[in-house]
């Protein structure tokens, strides 16, 4: 099944659009609080299309992701009853319960790891608010974790540039399905761990 090739071609084409940074910021903020698609899906082709702006794109993704994380934090702290049905319907309830438990136990460190890893960050932003992690450590961990992830992705893509694009085009299906498998493994690990 060839799902990712067409999506990759469309995204690379769209990544050069003048409004692409706004879309990246919106996607980054939404993914940190409620949306399922990670910003890497847009950050990578944007960094490939404009390698000289890759670090700027990483900064946009980082700042917008932290702002979206603050929305997730606020939902967990102030409106948990509104998001609880969504958490349940999305199948995140076990992961969310574990996220709250880990947030209470490890605070800053769990947010740092969640910000960098491929596991659903939104689960942890909401859990952090519900667990009452202090806001300053939450923001600091989010900036470091999300920044490390996005600057690493953008930097590697910009560095590889034109040399990397043919390889990506050849292996996009394999990489796409590998990403889906990694996400599924992360969710399973959260639910069973």
From TrEMBL:
Pfam families given in the database record: VTT_dom
Domain of life (superkingdom): Bacteria
UniProt keyword terms in alphabetical order: Membrane, Transmembrane, Transmembrane helix
Record's keyword annotation contains ATP-binding: no
Residue span, VTT domain: 58-156
Transmembrane segments annotated in the record for this chain: 54-87, 107-131, 143-162, 174-192
InterPro entries: DedA_domain, VTT_dom
Protein's recorded name: VTT domain-containing protein
Native species: Halorhodospira neutriphila
High-level lineage: Bacteria, Pseudomonadati, Pseudomonadota, Gammaproteobacteria, Chromatiales
């Amino acid at each position: 099944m060839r799902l990712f090739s067409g999506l990759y071609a469309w995204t690379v084409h769209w990544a050069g659009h003048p409004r692409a940074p706004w879309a990246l910021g919106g996607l980054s903020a939404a993914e940190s609080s409620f949306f399922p698609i990670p910003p890497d899906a847009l950050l990578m082709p944007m960094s490939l299309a404009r390698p000289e702006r890759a670090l700027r794109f990483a900064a946009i993704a980082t700042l917008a992701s932290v702002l979206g994380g603050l929305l997730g934090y606020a939902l967990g702290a102030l409106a948990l009853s509104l998001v609880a049905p969504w958490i349940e319907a999305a199948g995140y309830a076990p992961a969310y319960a574990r996220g709250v438990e880990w947030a209470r136990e490890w605070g800053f460190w769990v947010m740092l790891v969640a910000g960098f890893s491929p596991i659903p960050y939104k689960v942890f932003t909401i859990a952090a608010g519900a667990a009452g992690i202090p806001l300053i450590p939450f923001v600091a961990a989010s900036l470091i974790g999300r920044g490390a992830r996005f600057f690493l992705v953008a930097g590697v893509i910009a560095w590889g540039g034109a040399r990397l694009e043919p390889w990506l085009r050849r292996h996009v299906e394999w990489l796409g399905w590998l990403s889906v498998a990694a996400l599924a493994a992360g969710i399973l690990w959260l639910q069973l761990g």
